[in-house]
Specification:
The chain is an alpha+beta fold. 28% of the residues lie in helices and 21% in strands. The strands form three sheets. It has a four-stranded antiparallel β-sheet, with no helix packed on it. A two-stranded antiparallel sheet has the order 1-2. The two termini are 34 Å apart.
């Protein structure tokens, strides 16, 4: 039966689609009853806890097969691409660096590109991963990044960029407190908080972070 799903922390569109038996998230995300949410959240992989997502009935598929024989049906489960940039302790990108990806007991050898970016695919059900480059360990929480226009989303992006001092509580207080939490970022980016509204800096932060 169709119903409305309340998004929980750590869920994104692919995890939700897989949980309801969909091979692709598109029938859910493109449904007319999700138009408002789609307008609010431009990226279906960055949802916010409490978002209301309409789940339609999965469309049944049929195929022809000879009777009296055994048939194997293979359903391909879509994977999710993850792209992250690794930095050293001084904030410089780890360019062309060999690294190791671990998801549960499975491990995979990878290498960053010239800008320190590394890409890999995960299953919709994967929630945690770990990247190791030399002596540096980068724990990843897949699907836990909140939208950029939320206090927790701003705090997480600042933390990922090395400004871990900013907490969601600070960012939820008032504009002055949010400016304080963003102060080092503003200084580094040479932005003036007195000449432009806060949304401009959040947009800049999102651009700097990459999502």
């Amino acid at each position: 039966m169709p119903h409305v799903h309340a998004v929980a922390q750590g869920e994104h569109i692919a995890t939700i689609a897989a949980a309801y038996g969909f091979g692709s998230y598109e029938p859910i995300w493109n449904h007319a009853r999700n138009a408002e949410l789609k307008k609010l959240r431009s990226d279906p992989f960055v949802l916010f806890p409490g978002d209301q997502l309409f789940i339609p009935d999965p469309q049944a598929k049929s195929f022809s097969a000879a009777t009296g024989q055994r048939h194997q049906v293979v359903v391909k489960a879509g994977k999710v691409k993850v792209r992250v940039q690794l930095h050293d302790s001084l904030g410089s990108p780890l360019a062309n660096e060999p690294c190791k990806l671990a998801i549960g007991p499975a491990e995979q050898a990878l290498q960053t590109d010239g800008d320190g970016f590394v890409e890999f695919a995960v299953r919709p059900t994967d929630r945690k991963a770990e990247l190791t480059a030399g002596e540096l360990i980068f724990p990843l929480e897949i699907g836990h990044l909140d939208p950029p226009d939320t206090a927790s989303g701003v705090a997480a992006r600042l933390g990922n960029l090395g400004h871990a001092y900013a907490s969601p509580v600070e960012l939820e207080l008032r504009d002055e407190a949010r400016y304080f939490a963003l102060s080092l970022f503003l200084e580094e980016e040479k932005l003036d908080p007195k000449s432009q509204p806060l949304d401009v800096f959040v947009k800049h932060l999102r651009s700097k972070h990459g999502v």
